[in-house]
Amino acid sequence: MYKITKYSYLFSTFLLILATTSCKEAKKVETENTTETAEQMSAQPISKSEFGTLPNGTVVDKYTLTNANGIAIDVISYGGRITAIRMPDKNGKVENITLGFDKLKDYLADNPYFGALIGRYGNRIANAQFSIGENTYKLGANNGTNNLHGGPEGFDRAVWKVTPKADGDKSVLVLEYYSKDGEMGYPGNLATVVTYTLDNDNQFEINYEAETDKATVINLTQHAYFNLSGDFSKPITDHKVKIDADSFLPVDENLIPTGEIRNVSGTPFDFTQSKTVSKEIDADNKQIALGGGYDHCWVLNGVTGNLRTSAIAMHAASGRKLEVLTTEPGIQFYTGNFLDGTLPNPAGGYYGKRSGFCLETQHYPDSPNQPKFPSTKLEPGERYKTTTIFKFSIE
Ligand code: GLA
Questions:
Q1: Which residues are catalytic?
Q2: Closest Cα to residue 166, out of 5, 39, 336?
């Protein structure tokens, strides 16, 4: 359950505007905003260029956020995807540390959600269905019999309305998407606003907000793959990772949580102390075998709703460090086990197995079918609001 706040009216207004505005009018508003932000942009370190054109003629834009410490983050309007994060290593060498493509066609083809905003539901919903009260909702199955990451045309494939904003010395992008009642089978018109903010403390903050006009479920996340070495020909197994979680969610053969909340102690899933990923990623362990490595949700310590440091990844040779702070109760640590050397890396070659890892902050997979898990239900009049920060540094 999410809180009702005084800001709710903003979303109601947003809902109303989107619902009543024709495509032509929407285009006009966008053009006006673009002109307006051109002036703001001169004071803001945000540049905009054309990334590509969809088969239906829609232009996909690329925005680049920069900060005072040499970090540059590229975001495209298609899927709100982060296509590159360039950052210096301990010797000042700037490299891209997130897996992506340089051509729109590669994002349009089958790909494992590189850099994408995920909605309406991050990770799996068993048998692609759930019920709210008397109503059962059938979703698109795109992962065996499961619904994965919102279905075949999830938020990762939506074109978001992107608005650069001025906020002191911060670089801000506001991304908006209006998902219609029944889209991918989910109930309710859902007005979603995601805000990306890059500051001079090297924090990339992601704020997710949404409102619905009918009871629904929601679990938004970001699916960036990191390889802090900056060399995607190398697996991420030499990184050290710490996850502030005393337990994790074991899965079945369809990668659906069994419902058990298992203590990590004495298992390969114990990341309470920083540990090299390679240490137990191929351990003789049933859960490791089911995931083909790590592909599980950790149950984070601390209070849901409180922003706290939940995971830290460190790459010693480059000195690059990533800290993940979140208000969410869980984090999916996925070690890129399904990457198979078929997707092109713009820097040369192809993305191989385990060439990137994800730390997807979220509620637990399959929560709509697991009453013991924290609820992912969103009711009309409530506002969904979560925050995650990727904080970059050099040690
Ligand atoms: C998530 C899932 C993985 C996989 C990737 C995308 O992280 O947990 O099993 O589906 O997305 O390939």
A1: 223, 360
A2: 39
> Which of 107, 142, 148 to probe ligand 1 with, by most ligand atoms within 8 A of CB?
148
Reported as a pLDDT band with limits 50, 70 and 90, residue 194 is very high
What's the rounded mean pLDDT across residues 344-356? Answer: 97
Q: Is the pLDDT of residue 338 over 50?
A: yes
Cα atoms found within 13 Å of the Cα of residue 118, Cβ hemisphere only: 27
Closest residue (by CA) to atom 9 of ligand 1?
295
Question: 3-class SS at 256?
Answer: coil
**Which of 219, 334, 358 best tests ligand 1's pocket when mutated (most atoms within 8 Å of CB)?**
334
Count Cβ neighbours within 10 Å for each residue of 196-224 and write b for 16 or more, e otherwise.
bbbbeebbbbbbbbbbbbbebbbbbbbbb
- With a Cβ cut-off of 6 Å, ligand 1 is lined by 112-113, 123, 148, 255, 295, 332, 334, 338, 358, 360
Tokens of 75: 């975001």
Q: What would the mean pLDDT of 182-189 be, rounded to a whole number? A: 98
Distance from the alpha carbon of residue 334 to the mean position of ligand 1, in angstroms:
7
The DSSP 8-state label assigned to residue 264 in this structure reads -
CB 213 within 8 A of CB 15: yes
- Provide CB contacts within 8 A for 97, sequence distance 6+: 85, 86, 87, 226, 227, 228, 229, 230, 320
- Closest Cα to atom 5, ligand 1: which residue? 112
Q: What residue type is 367 in one-letter code?
A: S
pLDDT higher for 23 or 124? 124
Percent over 90 (pLDDT), the chain: 88
Q: What residue owns the CA closest to ligand 1's atom 1?
A: 123
Mean pLDDT of 37-47: 52
If one residue of 143, 147, 149 were mutated to test the ligand 1 pocket, choosing by the most ligand atoms within 8 A of its CB, it would be 149
pTM above 0.85, yes or no: yes
> HSE (CB half, 13 Å, CA atoms) of 33?
16
* Whether pLDDT at 29 is above 60: no
Specify the amino acid at residue 165.
K
Q: In angstroms, what CA-CA distances link 26 with 18, 81, 176, 329, 377? A: 8, 22, 12, 36, 30
Please tell me the distance between residue 123's alpha carbon and the centre of ligand 1 in angstroms: 7
